[in-house]
Each structure stands twice: as C-alpha cells, then as structure tokens.
Amino acid sequence: MTRVGLIANPAAGRDIRRLTGGASVVDNYAKRRVAECVLEGLAVVTEPPDVAVMPDRSGIADHAVSEAPDDLAVERVEMTVEESAADTRRAAARFRESADAVVVLGGDGTTRDVALEIGDVPLVSVSTGTNNVVPTPVDGTVAGAAAAAVATGAADADAVTDRHGRIDVRADDVNGEKRLTGLAAVEITDRSFVGTRAVIDPSELVGGVVSRAHPSDIGLGSVAGCLEPLAPDALGGVALRLDDPEATARSVSAIVAPGMTATIGVTERDRLEWDEPATFDVSDVVVGADGERELEVVDATVEMTPTADGPRLVDADAALGAAVEAGALVREGPLLEER
Amino acid sequence: MADYTLETEEGRREALRRMLTIREFDSTAGDYFADGEIPGFVHLYIGEEAVGVGACAALEPDDYIASTHRGHGHCIAKGLDPKLMMAELFGKQDGYCNGKGGSMHIADVDSGMLGANGIVGAGPPLATGAALSIDYDDREQVAVGFLGDGAVAQGQVHEAINLAATWDLPAVFVVENNRYGEGTPVEEQHNVDDLSDTAGAYDIPGVTVDGMDVTAVAEAVEEARKRARDGDGPTIVEAETYRYRGHYEGDEQPYRDEDEIEKWKEQDPIDRFSELLVDRGELTEEELKELRDEIEAEIEEAVEYAQDAPLPDPSEAYEDMFAEMPPEIERFASQARADGGSLGGDRR
C-alpha cells in the first residue's frame, strides 16, 4: 500500500511580519480548509494512498481526519505534541521511513524543518507561511493530487521533482560552535537579538548566502536575483556582502520582506560552487535562515556553505501532467456493447 | 529617549535589574502576605517579568500604562519606587495611594502609571481614554493597556479596542497570556488559537510573541509604538507567558500540575536574559550575584520602610478619593474627621 504524509504547521504564517510589513495572515481555519483540500485531492487517483497526518493541538489534524473523503484511509501519526518546530521534525522523521510522498503546509521555515529530516521522500510544499520562497502557492487540492500521483507511481518521481539546495552555517564565537541551516537563504543582520525573528529594518542586512536567486525570491534571494537570477535547481549558490547604498558603487531595489522593498548597496557578489564556503567576520549580529533571525553570534567567523542536500520538491503541474500520460486520471467504463 | 532600552549595554543591565527586582519584590510580598502582615489579596507576577519589562523598555518615560490586578511588575517596569509600593501593600500612609489602595490599586500618574485594577479588563478602557487625551492634545505619547487572557473576552475590552481602532488612537494593547484565567485554561475560554487573532475583528494588526523573551516583547511593542505614533492606530501584542504562582496567593491550583510549572520554568525569562548577557560578555556570574544581593537588600529595606511607616489616619478615610469631594460624601468625611482621634490607636 502506498502512503502520503501530511504536515500542517499550526504556527506558520503567524509572526510579527504582519505588523512590520505587509505579510498576510493565514489563520488555522484557512489551514484546516487547505488540509481538507489536500485530502480531497489525494482521492483523485484510482487507488488512493493511505494518509498519515501530523497531530497538533489546533484541530487541523482532527478536522482533516473527520472531514476526509470516505474512500480515503486517514490516521493521525502516534507521537507526542510539543507545539514547537520539534513536532514538524519528528513527523518528517517518521515519514522518511514510511511515506512515498509528503505534503507540507507552511512557509520556508516549516519546509526547512521537514527538509532536515525527510531524506529523499518527494515533498509537495504548499505555501501557508509568511516568507515563502520555496513553497509554492498551489491550491491544496492540486497539491494532494500531485502527491497522490507521485506516491502511487503514476508520475515518475525522478522526472517530476527537482533537488533544492541548502546552505549550512557554522559560526565559531566566544561560546563555541553554533550551527544553522537555510534552504533558500541565510542572512546576517546587524542586530543583537533574535527577538521577534523578523528582519525589521532592511538597512541592517549585512550579507549572506543564497541557494537560488530571483527578484521574486523575497529576502536576500531577491537582492541577489536583481543582479543575476539563479534557478532553484542550479548548481551552487551566491554570496553577497551588503552596505549602505550611498557607500557602494552598485545598488539594487529588492523585495526584502513581505510588504517591504528597499534599495540595498552591494559591495561584493561571489558565485559559489557546491561545498565552497563563504566566510564573514562579524562582531555582534544575528544570523537568520530564510528571512527569520535565528542565531545570536558575538565576535565570530561565520562560514556559510551551499550544499546539494536540500529536499526533493515535486513540481505539481509536471506530476499531474505525467499522471495524465500514464492514464491515471481516466477511468474506462464498460464498452457500450457490453452493457 | 526611553528610561532604558535594550539597544544599549547599560539599558540591558537595567532591564535585567528590573526583572530581578520584580521577582524579589513579589517573592517577598508573597512571604509577608503568608505571615498576615499584608492585608487584602496579592497576585504575583513571578514568571511574567519579561512582559512588563519588555513592553516598558519600548516606551518613553512619559508614555502611559494601565495595569491589571497583577500589577506589581508593571509598576516596577515603569520605574515606580519599590519602597512606596511596599508601603502601599502594607496599607501604610507612605504608600503610593496613602495606603488606601493596596496591592491591586497602585497608581502614580506622574510616572505614567494609570493604575492597577481589581476589575478584570479595566485597563484597556483607561488606555483608550489616555490615548484619546494624547490625540486630543496633540502630544507625542502612547498609552499601553495591559490585560490578561481572561480579559480578552470581556465586553469593555472589546469596546475599548474597537474605539481605539476606529479613531486610530495611539494605543497598544498587551495581552499577557499566562495560560489561565484564574483556574480556567485558555483553550476552554477562547475559540481562537492565538488571542492576537482577535485583532482581525478591529482591522488592526495582532501579533503573538514569546513572552518569556524580553527582547521579543520589547521589539514587538516598539513596532506597535511606532505604528501608534505614526497615526495608524492600535496593535494587539499577545505575549505567551506563564505565572509560576497561583492566581492569588493561597490558590491551591487544582487545575494544573507541577510538571507543567517545571516545564515553563525551563524557559525562565530572567535566566534566559541573564544567560544571554553572560554569553555576550556583558555580565559575569559574579556581577549577577552582586546584582541579586543588591536587589535583595533593596527589597528588605522596602519592607522595613513599609513596616515602620504609619497607617493612614482614620480621620482621612475619605480624602484622596475624589478630585472634588461630592457634597453627599462630604458629611461622612466631616464625621470621620470628627471621630478620627478616637479610632487612632497604635498606628504602626
């Protein structure tokens, strides 16, 4: 029997960026509805996969189970719920062993948490977060159908997935070694504390490394993308060093956070190969991943390395196209003369 | 310039000092309440220090705050004197309200502290009123209304936030979600996951932050303050926090277990912030100990001061109650003045 895992992060899309920028709010009622759509979509193939849902205390999983289509076998994963990112990671670790495809509802942060544990299981990442570069704003039903196509083999996973990069960060500061991983970008902000996590003031961006770049890749990826785009499945990454646009020969107008554009001075842009680190010497900063401040470092050397170990992301359109070619979405009725 | 700000090393030290002062003040108040020296009720702020201190770190000295029944922390965060606060708790003449208010009614308008309040959800209407006065007089302040999770469903809170939002008043509403409205878990009182989601009803932003992290609270309130000063109206900032003690001192707390309390203590706001400062090289363990000792002595002194201070004179029972005494009260007041001496006794 094939199996699809569903992870809906209740905490995604709820951070302070809806105050500091124009980030949209995705409430848990909306997430319930998206989860319901995913299950509906999974039932579109002839022999739908079994479904396992990450439990939560916000009623998303409960609602999904009770509202699931009759012909779909849906269960909650048996696991403890901490109401933190650990839940997402724990569920992803289970799915690495037991699922043929996973659907994630969340933003870049949630997708990153899943990516760290999911191994090679194909991922359909649906945007319900704040800073969404990696997940796509695909309809939940389409995401479910695409996951079903991949899980059941109607679509060849190798043909409809792309391997995303990731960036590993290692900082040696006065208190020892600290580590962090980003999917699309890791960035250094000139601020002392993690605080509310959001990048509040674009002029505080000091630099960082991206694994992809495009003006539409909100955050540091947008800054890099304004100079030269880098496809999500392209090799390596780009390192940027930034400064006050008044002090630099070249500056770009980029989308640095939802609802926030800024002119950013770029002092240096370096193309990096896989596993080629960029290093930054910093005094009192916070290192962030995918637009969220995560790690306070003081007097440190920060090493940022793009690697090819990101998640395998499903292209939903391609997956459904492949399902059509395989005839998985057509049910042949009895021939007229046989009736 | 704010009283103290997390932007500077000195300000961070001051924020830590205030958090430690709140904890020491409230631990001590709990002890003297248990001994029967403090009359009435006390509701302790222990565990929630990062919320009051974080919020006040984002304010200017002349900004207003309106507090709750759990108000000691807000007072200390806003810069009130622990000696005069303790005297108020002891019901003494030297207290902020001449000993007539007690724990739940400490107010000091000169410090911008509009009052603690025995009525659940009574802070936001005061904040909205203060914000209206700021707007009316074209002043550069904001008014912050603190409220608990239980107060979020109170009618007057809705009225206060609705008007502040409708008139774009310079107010900030800080919801201290300590998980329980008295003994009722927050999930059993509200249908929304995050209490900041109620902001949608007023078409204003609402954010939920880690209320055990003073830097997160300060940052959110700072952004909310900016928004208020820009004329964009109020913001709801929900701080997720936890009270270590009962709802009131003496609460048997059948609604929760020790494991839960211990789990939250792992996130202790004072430990977290002091460790952060130690990690940054701004504070040594020794200095932290010195700071604790200093504060312990300061609170001990506050208790001695409160114990030694006189009780208010019964003849003044009706003073300090009204800006202008209503005629129908005046006759009781004159009676008290006439009887005053006979009720005096030992006024220590």
TrEMBL record, chain A:
Record keywords, A-Z: Kinase, Transferase
InterPro entries: AcoX-like (IPR039065), ATP-NAD_kinase_N (IPR017438), NAD/diacylglycerol_kinase_sf (IPR016064), NADK (IPR002504)
Any single GO BP term: NADP+ biosynthetic process
Protein name, as recorded: ATP-NAD/AcoX kinase
Domain of life: Archaea
A Pfam family it matches: NAD_kinase
Record GO terms (molecular function): NAD+ kinase activity
TrEMBL record, chain B:
One GO molecular-function entry: pyruvate dehydrogenase (acetyl-transferring) activity
A matching Pfam family: E1_dh
A Gene Ontology BP annotation from the UniProt entry: pyruvate decarboxylation to acetyl-CoA
Coiled coil: 274-308
Domain Dehydrogenase E1 component: 18-314
UniProt cofactor(s): thiamine diphosphate
Keywords: Coiled coil, Oxidoreductase, Thiamine pyrophosphate
SUPFAM superfamilies in alphabetical order: Thiamin diphosphate-binding fold (THDP-binding)
InterPro entries tied to this protein: DH_E1, PDH_E1_Alpha_Subunit, THDP-binding
PANTHER family per the UniProt record, alphabetical: PYRUVATE DEHYDROGENASE E1 COMPONENT SUBUNIT ALPHA, PYRUVATE DEHYDROGENASE E1 COMPONENT, ALPHA SUBUNIT BACTERIAL AND ORGANELLAR
Record protein name field: Dehydrogenase E1 component
